Amino acid sequence: MSDAHYDDGHTPGHSHDGVKPSTEARYYAGRIRAIEALLVDKGVLAKEDVRRQIEYMEARTPANGARMVARAWVNPEYKALLLSDTKAAAQELGIDASGLVEFVTLENTPEVHNLVVCTLCSCYPRAILGVPPDWYKSFDYRSRAVDGPRAVMREFGLEIPEDVRVAVHDSSADVRYMVLPMRPPGTESMGEDELAGLVTRDCLIGASIPRSVE
Amino acid sequence: MAARFEPGDPVLVRADEKPGHVRTPGYVKGKTGRVEEVLGVFEDPEILAYGGSGPPEKPLYKVSFRQTDLWERYAGSANDALYVDIYEHWLEPAREEAR
Question: What is the average pLDDT value for chain B, to the nearest integer?
Fold first, then answer.
């Protein structure tokens, strides 16, 4: 597959800063601004509400998920909580994931590898991880992750062995999913912070796995 | 609202062409899967999206499908699965042997 396959030019290990918005994105951005101005004019919301919401979203990053994963790796009780009640597990680390949507954590094991997608739009555990990467919202990922997940993961540099079951989760309703990857070998001596550093955003979606640095 | 299906039940996804804020992906319509889990009851997004209040709440199920049942030329293991969360009004009982 070519590097240009993802519509934002995604390649594994390549950052997306400075990606130019498409003409379509500019159109919608303009439309959103017009709607926002109208809502403010009519007193439905204040500019302050918008600013506060943007700050709320920007305060959430994949580092939250990485901390939760690292804690689960070193603490079996926390892992049990994470798998049974992800909201409570987030709360325990001071991450406020309260709200209407449910959060579920999917555990990768030697038998099953999980991959998350939202085919209908871009449902993502935003209250914990912040905004999704651009490729997650691309039409290409959203369509191919369901009918060819192994090929998609291969493009991310992740080859899932044939005897490992691939489980794709299309989260298009009221539940948001996050992946708990397996702790990589060779990390026995690492502390929680160091372990968290191995867990990238893509690992929390299932498009990658944590690798110990050699 | 009591859930009509329970884990293990084979279910057929209705093949309705319904306009609006439908959360049932087209590629599972008309396909048979199995209820894995009852996820709870939620306000109906098909009503909520248009300023409605949401009730009656709808049970939401995690339904599993075999990838090879969904895509004719699926390239992967026969054990690979796809999970979709589907509201109850999109599901019908299916025959056991379909799964």
Answer: 89
